[in-house]
Amino acid sequence: MLVGIDSTSDFGNDRVAFRHDVLRDWAVAGVLTATPEKLSELPLASMGSPAQLRGLELAARVRIETVADPTAWRKMLEVVSCNGSHPIWRRAMLLAIIHSEVTRHSISTMGETLLADDAALLRELIPIMLAVDVRPARDLLWLGAEPSPIPATLNIPDGPAWPHLVMWLLTRSADLPPKAIPEVAELYVGWCALGLFFPEDRLTPLIVAQFKLWLTEIELAHDWEDWRERKGRPVPFSSALTGEQLKRFEENARLYLALFAIRSPEAAKAYLAHVQKLKRKESIYCALMETRGSLAQAAPEELAAVTLDYLRKPEVEDDDDNGLPSRRRSPFADEALAHTDKDFLPAAPSQGPFYDLLKHAPKVGLKLIRDLIDDVVAHDTESMDAGEDALVVEMPTGPRRFPWVRTYAWSEHSHYYSVTSALMALETWGHERIEKCDNVIDVINDVTTGHSTNSLTSNQCKRRSRQTICTFRTRPRSVC
Question: Phi/psi at 344 (nearest 5 deg)?
Answer without folding.
Answer: -95, 15
